[in-house]
């Protein structure tokens, strides 16, 4: 997705951290209840220090929707998160992204045109009414709207399995395993899951499906790079997308941690590859990872596979435990990292002066259709 972020005025570029903190503090006090600042778990500490709420993307969007007195929602996250907040908040509220270049590479891997092309290709060889599109929260408002129009649902890393069960008409009482997979195959139902192949694959395995029930859809190839027979037989068509941070974690990282900490625990985000997830003691979203660390006994060594800013924050907040990243190169989310104190000061001081920088506004029709997909998710879970 093309974004254009103007260069910050020199005043902010050359300011010291203390100056920026002072400006942010004054602007925030001046704005009072008119502004709410949201900080995603992967943000820098210099930004999180000012957050009125911190959390996962959808949880923060829901929090924003509950802040009826706020005229401005400053979302310290990435583009799709700010879009979700704009969809859920009221008409008088304006959502602001401090740096327009704070995008999500995973979300950008599934553009609307590519998904529409895939839908058209599939409609030529199968009953498209039997295909339910499911998009991960980490996707654009346009994609959420597409899913809403096509009768599908959004999902999060916490509720992906529940949404897939709904999509495939799987009753909660049905056991996992081959009988379940055979039942679904006989029904002809399919899930087109995007943009993260790993969350889709891990969720399908967790429900008891086999690798033979899944096919990887490459949007750069005709029919997703699949033979027609494979596309017809697969229950899960998994979009070839991934998180640039979570794809870095490998089985050898887990092995190295266990050699160093034989009694340690490994906690992995479900955006990681299945061969990594299969070695975990616990798999879960960022919120689930936080809860696991909070509940772990004193002295526990915990190796975590997720973004480094969250891992470092957990280590700082829980000095009684040995917390480390499984990736020795500790790669941050480069787009999330674009949000800094300078950009936060700039947008807040702009609001004090009556200037709204970087408003994220989802068109009404797109917002309506995307809200349908979000409401289906909430009804399911």
Care to describe what's here?
The protein folds into three domains: 10-102 and 335-363, Rossmann fold (3-Layer(aba) Sandwich); 107-244, NadA-like (Rossmann fold, 3-Layer(aba) Sandwich), CATH 3.40.50; 246-325, Rossmann fold, CATH 3.40.50. The mean pLDDT is 93. Helix 4 (57-66) packs parallel to helix 5 and helix 8 (141-149) crosses helix 18 (364-380). It has 381 residues and is an alpha/beta fold. The strands form three sheets. Strands 2-1-3-4-14 form a five-stranded mixed β-sheet, sandwiched between helices. Strands 6-5-7-9-8 form a five-stranded parallel β-sheet, sandwiched between helices. It has a four-stranded parallel β-sheet with strand order 11-10-12-13, sandwiched between helices. Helix content is 43%, strand content 15%. The two termini are 31 Å apart. It contains 18 helices and 14 strands. Strand 8, helix 12 (228-233) and strand 9 form a beta-alpha-beta unit.
Short summary:
With 381 residues, this protein is α/β, with parallel strands linked by helices. The chain is built from 18 helices and 14 strands.
């Amino acid at each position: 997705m093309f974004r254009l972020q103007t260069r910050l005025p020199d005043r902010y570029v050359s300011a010291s951290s203390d100056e920026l903190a002072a400006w942010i503090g004054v602007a925030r006090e001046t704005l009072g209840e008119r502004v709410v600042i949201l900080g995603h778990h992967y943000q820098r500490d210099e930004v999180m220090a000012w957050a009125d709420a911190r959390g996962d993307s959808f949880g923060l969007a829901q929090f924003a929707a509950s802040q009826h007195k706020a005229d401005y929602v400053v979302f310290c996250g990435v583009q799709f998160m700010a879009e979700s907040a704009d969809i859920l908040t009221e008409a008088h509220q304006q959502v602001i992204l401090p740096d327009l270049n704070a995008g999500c590479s995973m979300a950008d891997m599934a553009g609307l045109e590519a998904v529409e092309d895939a839908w058209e290709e599939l409609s030529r060889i199968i009953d498209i009414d039997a295909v339910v599109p499911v998009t991960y929260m980490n996707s654009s408002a346009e994609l959420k709207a597409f899913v809403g129009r096509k009768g599908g649902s959004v999902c999060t890393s916490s509720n992906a399995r529940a949404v897939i069960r709904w999509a495939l008409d799987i009753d909660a009482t049905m056991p996992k395993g081959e009988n379940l997979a055979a039942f679904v195959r006989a029904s002809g139902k399919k899930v087109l899951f995007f943009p993260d192949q790993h969350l889709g694959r891990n969720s399908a395995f967790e429900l008891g499906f086999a690798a033979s029930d899944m096919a990887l859809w490459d949007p750069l190839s005709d029919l997703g790079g699949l033979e027609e027979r494979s596309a017809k037989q697969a229950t899960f068509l998994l979009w070839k997308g991934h998180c640039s941070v979570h794809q870095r974690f490998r089985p050898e990282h887990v092995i190295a941690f266990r050699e160093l900490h034989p009694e340690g625990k490994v906690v992995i985000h479900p955006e990681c590859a299945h061969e990594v997830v299969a070695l975990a003691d616990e798999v879960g979203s960022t919120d689930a990872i936080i809860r696991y660390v909070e509940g772990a006994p004193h002295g526990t060594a915990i190796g975590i596979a997720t973004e480094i800013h969250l891992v470092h924050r957990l280590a700082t907040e829980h000095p009684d435990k040995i917390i480390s990243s499984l990736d020795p190169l500790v790669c941050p989310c480069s787009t999330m990292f674009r949000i800094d104190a300078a950009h936060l000061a700039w947008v807040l001081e702009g609001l004090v002066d009556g200037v709204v920088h970087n408003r994220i506004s989802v068109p009404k029709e797109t917002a309506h259709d995307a809200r349908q997909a979000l409401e289906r998710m909430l009804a399911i879970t």
